[in-house]
Design brief:
alpha/beta; 2 domains
């Protein structure tokens, strides 16, 4: 199937509208089978320099194109993505491992983002405001920043890229894109779509390679004025420090330790469904995945029973088999990290109710599979309740009240997503107010963000910026204040006001 869907054996960089080889390569392996799907370039800082040089020239012309015309390109991108949705989805599953229905959902997210941000081409609103002096007009407008760098992760290789690149493009910027080396095919395919949609050469450039080489070169390049990064907290902090030294704008999204709160009046069947999907969908490899369940002690035993029953119905295997609901872990390093935290949880005294082991025999041979896992009798101070595991692992924490549930939810270093199941409208509104996360769900799990709302979080999750939604435009634009004095005389603000 790989040969049918993807003819190329080695991918190439996309710079100045041309496909350029970059020398050394590394294999990209299907996490479901271990088989090599394609080879990807390991580019150098010189490749980044070349991409930035052409992007600078292209951006000056692109910024002068009226924004509605820039948006027309995104409309064509969205239409091409619709036409190729099934092919893109199957390629995504092969390089990433997520089950096919999730891959289709991710591609749809990119389609939605194309049409949403294309609509912003006729908005990109500024503000008019009264001036304080007579015969004077005051307004603010958005202006493109210039050349922006986006660094995207492997777990959502096309959705997150569209969150970042589409607003940058419609706002009049040029883009240098470093995708994750584990999942380069979506970047390659999206670059071909940009080309076919008529995006001018140099407006989007894809440079494959490692974070330590390509990513670092982007962060330090003086002509890249924005870095938008999604990935680990440690890497994000390092990028922020380096960008700070250069007074370079940086947008960070760095994960979460998300919790589902289940109160004593909750619909437990609905809560269990939401937990299973949030925790084990994408094999727990989402920044919004539910890794904690904070449950009222009065319904703890009932919820445990329902979760254990529903876990038995989860088919695990290759995501291209549509009977499977849980796919593989991305690679051995990810698998080893999960296994490490299973040992940590046991050592801390948590009780392992289900899972906790790697799957290696039969159809699992060659891939990276881990059984959906449930710990109970976890305390909020345990490492498995505090640190991001990025795998299909739930920690069940018992509480005695709504107030304690809120306190436990907020007692971690991240603040991305939270959820509460309750029938009490008063609790709903108090939870919306008091949960310290950028996203709050009521009677739903911790996943399911829609592209027209801002995506991001508080505390260790990020640095205050947001992906998607109209708020994403703030990352890729500068506000410019404009004053037009038509009085024919010198007027001095604050001084000549009578």
């Amino acid at each position: 199937m790989t040969q049918t869907l993807l003819q190329e054996k080695t991918l190439t960089n996309f710079i100045d509208g041309k496909w350029a080889e970059a020398g050394e390569t590394t294999p990209v392996n299907n996490p479901a089978t271990g088989e090599t799907v394609v080879h990807v370039p390991l580019s150098t800082a010189k490749d980044v320099d070349q991409a930035v040089d052409v992007a600078k020239k292209a951006q000056k012309e692109w910024a002068r194109v009226p924004a509605p015309q820039r948006a027309d390109v995104l409309y064509r991108v969205g239409q091409l993505m619709i036409e190729r949705k099934e092919r893109l989805s199957q390629l995504l599953t092969m390089e990433n491992g997520k089950v096919l229905e999730e891959a289709r959902g991710e591609v749809q997210e990119g389609i939605d983002m194309a049409f949403y941000m294309a609509g912003e081409g006729r908005r990109l609103f500024g503000h008019t405001t009264p001036a304080e002096l007579d015969n004077k007009f005051a307004m603010s407008v958005r202006a493109p920043v210039g050349v922006v760098g986006i660094i995207t992760p492997w777990n959502f290789p096309i959705a997150i890229a569209t969150w970042k690149s589409f607003p940058a493009i419609v706002a009049g910027n040029a883009v240098i894109w470093k995708p994750a080396t584990e999942t380069p095919i979506m970047a390659y395919e999206l670059a071909k779509i940009f080309e076919e949609a008529g995006l001018p050469s140099g407006v989007v450039n894809v440079v494959f390679g490692s974070g330590s080489t390509v990513g670092d070169a982007m962060v330090h390049h003086k002509d890249i004025r924005v870095i938008s990064f999604t990935g680990s907290n440690d890497t994000g902090r390092s990028i922020a420090a380096k960008c700070g030294e250069q007074l370079k704008k940086v947008s960070l999204e760095m994960g979460g330790k998300n919790a589902v709160i289940v109160m004593d009046d909750a619909d437990l069947d609905l809560a269990a469904d939401g937990i299973i999907w949030s925790a084990y969908g994408t094999s727990g490899q989402r920044c919004t995945a539910a890794s904690r369940v904070i449950v009222h002690q009065a319904v703890k035993a009932q919820l445990e029973e329902k979760l254990l029953t529903k876990m038995q119905d989860l088919n695990i295997g290759n995501g291209l088999d549509e009977t499977n609901k849980v796919g593989p872990i991305i690679n051995k390093a990810g698998l080893d990290k999960i296994k490490k935290y299973i040992d940590i949880g046991k050592d801390e005294g948590a009780e392992l109710l289900a899972g906790g082991y790697e799957l290696t025999d039969g159809d699992y041979k060659g891939g990276f599979y881990f059984a959906p896992t449930l710990f109970t009798n976890v305390t909020s101070e345990m490492r498995i309740a505090q640190e991001e595991i990025f795998g299909p692992v739930i920690s069940l924490i018992s509480v005695e009240s709504f107030e304690e549930a809120i306190e436990v939810n907020n007692g971690v270093s991240y603040g991305l997503s939270s959820s509460i199941f309750t029938a009490d409208v008063n609790r709903v509104f108090r939870a919306q107010r008091d949960l310290d996360t950028g996203i709050v769900y009521v009677n739903a799990g911790t996943t399911g963000a829609e592209i027209h709302l801002p995506f991001g979080g508080t505390k260790g999750t990020g640095n205050g910026h947001r992906d998607s939604g109209v708020q994403a435009l703030d990352v890729f634009t500068e506000w410019k204040a404009v004053y037009v004095d038509y009085s024919g005389k010198l007027q001095r603000a604050q001084i000549d006001v009578e």
